[in-house]
Amino acid sequence: MKKRDIFRGVLCAAGCLLTLSCVSEKEKPSYIEIPKALSMNVKGGNPFVLTEETEIVIPSELKDWQAGISVFNSSLRKLTGDTLAVVGSSSSASAVLLKHNPELPSEGFRLHVNADEVRIEAADAAGAFYALQVLNQSLLLQKQAPFTLPAVDIQDGPEMKYRGAMLDVSRHFFTVEQVKRFIDLLAVHRLNYFHWHLTDDQGWRMEVKKYPKLTEVSKEFYTQEEIKDVISYAKQRFITVVPEIDLPGHTTAALVAYPQLGCTGGPYTMTTDKGGVHKDVLCMGKDFSYQFAKDVLAEVATLFPSPYIHIGGDEVPRDRWKQCPDCQAAIKKYHLKATKEQSAEDLLQGEFNVQMAAYLKTLGKQMVGWDEVLSDNIDPSTIIMSWRGLNQGFKALKKGHPVIFSSTGHFYFNNCQAEDAANEPLSTGGLLPMQTVYEAPLVLPESVAGRDTLVLGAEACLWTSHVDNDQLLDYMMLPRLAAFSEVTWTGSRRGGYADFLNRLPHMLEIYEKMGFGYAPHFFGIKASYAPDAEKNQLFVTLNSVEGSTIYYTLDGTVPDKNSQVYQSPIGIEESCTLKAVAYTPSGLCSDLLQKEVKVNKATFKKITLQTTPETRYAGENGKVLVDGVRSQPFHTTGMWVGYLGKPMEAVIDMEEKQNVTQVVLSSLTDMGSYIMGISKVEIYASDNGEDFTLLTENTYKAPEAKMQGKKIENLTLNFSETQARFIKVVARGFEALPEGHSGAGQPPFLFVDEIEIN
């Protein structure tokens, strides 16, 4: 190929899956600033121009740096049609020089660019790769030759050692090429660990030579040769692949293949659930279960170079173990006695974990487990991945365990990212806007002060119950992964969220150039509602990111920059539709806030809860029930009143006798969150607030055990016209989650919102 043709091409951007109309056209920046660098000084003067003579110069002893150069050249070929020559020494006037600098921290780098040369210094190959990524992304922002690199000095390096992302391939299988595409996403964001969730109830996806039936029952799986290919691909991008073999729970697929692994002996059937927790797990009283686990882990350890192997350990029901003679015999064998905090069965899983950790040590591996593996008898070297909130990680640190934070409330990307769930892809979990990801408070409390060295890092997780293609995967991961990358790379150096948003538009352009889609959810408007009984008004306070301007309307029209600018709380006296939108200086627009305010005889009135709700879901002592605003289908918004194991009883004082014929209240159903809705509603009336008469009652059908998604129902109860001052509403939940649900037999939550009296 003729070198003079190398930089004559024009970049053709891949068609993006989603377009961002709110981003204004701006002059392209010198370099992508996500994650934000430790220091960056963009200098004046002429840029470095890539020509047909440009060469990459690297000393011969830095052989392991060649992988990063290869990835850089591969991207360059897609952009320009050719690559840069790689030489050991050069007399060319146009060179990219790579130099080893042992004084720099691991994965850190220095990048110096002027008109004459590009110089990269790094302590290791990973640092050099990240510096080349900075150059690559700058070139991707350019549409045509000549391709240039503006003069700059950058020094950078990560704060966290472990910067990971997890992909669940059990619930939905992703091909090797799709997995590599996911790895590309990680590389763009300088993540260095790929957590590969290979087994679960829905399928066993890794070939195990000793147990071939595992993949026979699961149909779609990866051969060991395919796994080696993925590992090699990730290694070239300085990403370590951490395999997860979920044990001893989430093992339905294994039980179907080998029924003797279970307490009952089966037969077992493959589950059609897209998630959930299943009672049938590995029997902890059979030697075969332990031997099976060790055999599998031995093959995993041989296949994966990673120093870490994840054994899952989460969501393991004890039901079968309590009834199993073999498990009860094992409890006696290991002298396990229940404590105040843990049952004998809890400690039985702990014994299994101890044995697996010890066995993995003989294979040169360190065990990782979800935070349920944290028990009194667990090996202290076990790495705890805290998914049930940040506090679980703090608890593990206090016990001396290394920790990786993967809190569901901050880093689970299967959570919905916008309140308008009806117009979003089906998701599991709660609400996780990008701002919550970015502002994750990874600050250690005083109780674990001095344990900083045990914090390995953090991980973003994507469970694929409802994600079955690349487009949905992109939508759920991006741009939240950009925020996460700054949490892990920049760490405590993070600035405010507004600063991050000002740098985001150019990263979105990188996604488009690389053929990735993204969700158009960047930030929102937070509204708080304060009903004022004395003024008979609802005061709405709006907040958004620093520096943004909020515009709103009350007539149902979509606001724009010509609409009313929000400056102080809005007083609302009559029914209306509030809509608001905000704009940042960089041109990003917020999600549309839309709230129907319906003023009725209950609105703004005094309400008394006669039963105490759960502390987390107190709903401002019931005030959210009479603020005139109905919530979105997320129980964590603060606008629901939630109960567990008892009914809601609320009395509303309408201040004077009024004629009433109807009561409407909202009920939330979310079976994935153990929220089952309302089973019965009773309406009472009183003149004095003490003596109540039943007006009407109604019962409601239980939802299906396997119901997917979230649902709000506005329950309407009509009755003969009655004059009263006080109305009592009693909402009763269901006694237990139904058979077929992963939590069958447990009491469900009851969530109630807006009470309307007409």
What do these coordinates show?
23% of the residues lie in helices and 26% in strands. The protein is an alpha/beta fold and 758 residues long. It has an 8-stranded parallel beta sheet. Helix 3 links the parallel strand 10 and strand 11. The termini are far apart. Residues 1-29 have low confidence and may be disordered.
Layout of SSEs?
Blueprint: E1 39-42, E2 48-49, E3 55-57, H1 66-80, E4 85-87, E5 95-100, E6 109-113, E7 117-122, H2 125-140, E8 148-149, E9 152-156, E10 162-168, H3 176-188, E11 193-197, E12 199-200, E13 203-204, H4 213-216, H5 224-236, E14 240-244, H6 252-257, H7 287-303, E15 308-310, H8 319-323, H9 325-333, H10 344-362, E16 366-370, E17 383-386, H11 390-398, E18 403-405, H12 408-411, H13 434-438, E19 455-462, H14 470-477, H15 480-489, H16 497-514, E20 526-532, E21 537-543, E22 549-553, E23 564-565, E24 570-572, E25 576-583, E26 593-597, E27 606-609, E28 641-644, E29 648-670, E30 675-676, E31 680-686, E32 693-699, E33 711-732, E34 749-757
Parallel strand pairs: 3-4, 3-5, 5-7, 10-11, 10-19, 11-14, 15-16, 16-17, 17-18, 18-19
Antiparallel strand pairs: 1-9, 2-8, 6-7, 6-9, 12-13, 20-21, 21-24, 22-23, 22-25, 25-26, 27-29, 28-34, 29-30, 29-33, 29-34, 31-32, 31-33
Helix pairs in contact: 1-2, 3-5, 7-10, 9-10
Largest sheet: 8 strands, parallel
Query: How large, in whole angstroms, is the Cα Rg?
Result: 29 Å
Oligomer: single chain
| First-residue to last-residue Cα separation | 80 Å
* Beta-strand percentage range: 25-35%
Q: In terms of per-residue confidence, which ranges show pLDDT below 50 for 5 or more consecutive residues?
A: 1-29
- Strand arrangement, largest sheet? 14-11-10-19-18-17-16-15
The chain-level structural class is alpha/beta
The number of helical segments is 16
The gross shape turns out to be globular
Number of strands: 34
**Percent of residues in helices:** 10-25%
* Average of per-residue pLDDT values: 92
